[in-house]
Each structure stands twice: as structure tokens, then as C-alpha cells.
Design brief:
The chain has 14 helices and 12 strands. With 346 residues, the chain is an alpha/beta fold. The chain starts with a strand and ends with a helix.
Length: 346
């Protein structure tokens, strides 16, 4: 097979990195293209994955449209030279039209029901879209449902083992009580009109958690001074190890919320987008691994209650074991699908 992976977000590096390595090890030809976002580039370099940069993403909606057109043009040139059998991407807004123009197949992955604009843009051009079984929208004959989460492509026990030594990078001692907090800029198109923690709530959250132990903050933006001093000072690839050992995670980042839950860490999400996310509804309703709030004060109170509860971590670990028995290794599922898909298309 000749497979081109197009990455638009740091989370996509994690999602596809094991599949990329596995395909290369099996003798397949693989090419990676990526938007030049700082964390994504850092991760690709840390995992030693060569890639072709398609340039930076825009900040405003208008700038995003311009940058999308430019990066799609660059992708088409790269893809024409590489001649892939299939292009794989998450919510493949630029990859799917490029694949269609070049008469190549595009396989998308999507777990974000509220990304309506992106879905309208890519659906006419994809051959298949892989979604979690509980994805709340029917996409027609191209949809392939699997029982798992994107994040289980890299956080399934087959793929990831938490390393307590990584705590030292963040200055945390083994066994120390600490919280992980993640704030996002909400600049993605599917986040337009949605809110999470405002600046005041961010300060109150970190102050409240700091009364119960160390707080490690990951953020896409500059923060108030009293919060900034808690910023994570270690490699981006260390975050999952921190999440695994944390007493609680809380934030307005959807992917990190799911990651923490799948690692067995009490996970609190705050944001107006929460009720729209099928992953959250399933994790909260089926397993009790996530607590979702729209009101920031309720989220703060919940997080403080969890970090001060000495039995919470053990309870979440048990819930995680139940979930893992029900779900698949998503990297394995993707690889099996691509092999079958390319055999049928050839």
C-alpha cells in the first residue's frame, strides 16, 4: 500500500503515529503531511516521524479559509508526486477534495458531531468515514462504525504504559497528589460560539485545586500570572503520563477530557459544547468516567470534590477496566480496515 496521512491537529499525530510505524515496518510506503502547528511539529519531531509541512493554519474564520485553500493546493502537489492508494485524515476537509480531484480514495475519521461545516465540506468526496459506534449522526453508506474512541489508538494498554519517571520532568514526586488542567483557545471552526472557562473561572479553578496539591496547567494561550506559574514545563509527549497519574483532570479541551477518562483519571469537562459530544455522553452515561458541566462553578466544585476524595482514583480505574473490555484497539481496527479497503479498491 501507499498511504498518505494528512494531519491538521496535534491530536492527529497521536491518533495515527502507531499506524504509521506499523505500516512502515510491514514494508508499506507512507508519507505524512501536516499543518505547522507548534505542538504538532514538536510531537512529530519527538516521535521521529518525517513530514511535509503544508504551512500554518489561520486564526480567524476568514484566515482559516484562505490557509485551507493554500494548504490544499500544497497537498495536491505532494499527493500527485507520491501517488497514494489512499489518503487518511481526521475530518478531511482538505484531504477529501484533493483525493477526489486526483482520483484517489480518501478515508476519514470523525468523532465530532458538532463539526457541521467540516462534515458538509468533506462528505461528498470521501469513500469511507470511520466513527465511534455511538456517534450521534447517520452519515449514510460511507459510514463505518467501530466500538472505540480515537484516543484508544494510542492509549489502549496494547499501545501505552504510563511511566512514573516522566513525572520528574514536571517536578512531581511519585505518589504526590496533583491535578492536570487543560485550557483551549476554542479557535477551531466547530468551537465557534461555544465557551468553556473564562479568565476569571480559570484563576478560581487553579487556586481551588492548588489548595489540595500541585497543579499542572496546559494551555494554548497566555494566562493570568497566577495561573501561568503553574504551566507545564516538560515535553508535550509527557502529558499522557501526567494524565495517567493525576488525581483529577479538569478543563475545556475535548480530546484531553477523553484521554484522561480512558486512562482511569477522574475527568471533568466544562463547556457549552459538552452536551453535543457523543463521546462525552457515552463516557458519562455508560461508564461514569466523565462529568460534564456548562456552569463553571459546578465544574470547579466537582473537581475539588474529586481531588479531595481518596477513593475516586480507584473507582475510576475500575470503570476504565470495564470500558476496555468493551472496546477495541483502534490502531488495529484502522490497519485491518485499510488493508481490506485497499484490496477492494485495487
Amino acid at each position: 500500500m501507499r498511504v498518505l496521512f494528512d494531519l491538521g491537529h496535534p491530536a492527529h499525530v497521536h491518533l495515527f503515529r502507531n499506524a504509521i510505524v506499523s505500516l512502515k515496518t510491514s514494508g508499506h510506503m507512507v508519507l505524512v503531511t501536516a499543518s505547522e502547528r507548534e505542538v504538532a511539529v514538536d510531537l512529530l519531531q519527538q516521535y521521529r516521524i518525517p513530514f511535509v509541512s503544508l504551512g500554518r493554519s489561520g486564526c480567524t474564520l476568514g484566515a482559516k479559509g484562505v490557509r485551507l485553500a493554500i494548504s490544499a493546493m500544497r497537498l495536491s502537489i505532494v499527493a500527485l508526486r507520491f501517488s497514494p492508494d489512499v489518503i487518511v485524515a481526521v475530518s478531511p476537509v482538505r484531504a477529501a477534495p484533493v483525493a477526489w480531484v486526483l482520483r484517489r480514495a480518501c478515508v476519514g475519521m470523525d468523532d465530532t458531531e458538532h463539526a457541521t461545516l467540516a462534515r458538509h465540506l468533506y462528505m461528498p468526496f470521501v469513500k469511507a468515514v470511520l466513527t465511534p459506534a455511538w456517534y450521534g449522526i447517520e452519515l449514510g453508506p460511507a459510514q463505518v462504525r467501530y466500538h472505540g474512541f480515537h484516543e484508544l489508538a494510542y492509549l489502549h494498554p496494547n499501545r501505552f504504559e504510563p511511566d512514573a519517571a516522566m513525572l520528574r520532568e514536571a517536578g512531581i514526586a511519585p505518589g504526590e497528589i496533583f491535578s492536570v488542567v487543560r485550557f483551549v483557545s476554542a479557535s477551531a471552526s466547530h468551537d465557534c460560539g461555544h465557551t468553556g472557562f473564562d479568565l476569571s473561572a480559570r484563576s478560581r479553578l487553579v487556586k481551588a485545586l492548588a489548595e489540595h496539591g500541585r497543579v499542572v496547567v496546559s494551555s494554548e494561550m497566555q494566562l493570568p500570572a497566577e495561573v501561568e506559574r503553574h504551566r507545564m514545563r516538560c515535553r508535550a509527549s509527557a502529558l499522557h503520563h501526567l494524565l495517567a497519574f493525576a488525581s483529577v483532570y479538569v478543563g475545556d479541551a475535548g480530546t484531553t477530557t477523553t484521554e484522561a477518562a480512558l486512562l482511569g483519571t477522574p475527568s471533568v469537562f466544562c463547556g457549552t459544547v459538552g452536551p453535543l459530544v457523543g463521546n462525552f455522553r457515552y463516557l458519562e452515561g455508560q461508564y461514569g468516567l466523565v462529568r460534564c458541566f456548562v456552569d463553571s462553578e459546578q465544574a470547579i466544585n466537582c473537581a475539588v470534590g474529586l481531588v479531595s476524595n481518596p477513593t475516586a482514583k480507584g473507582e475510576w480505574s475500575g470503570k476504565r477496566e470495564t470500558l476496555l473490555r468493551d472496546c477495541v484497539d483502534v490502531t488495529d481496527a484502522l490497519l485491518r480496515f485499510l488493508e481490506t479497503f485497499c484490496d477492494v479498491c485495487s
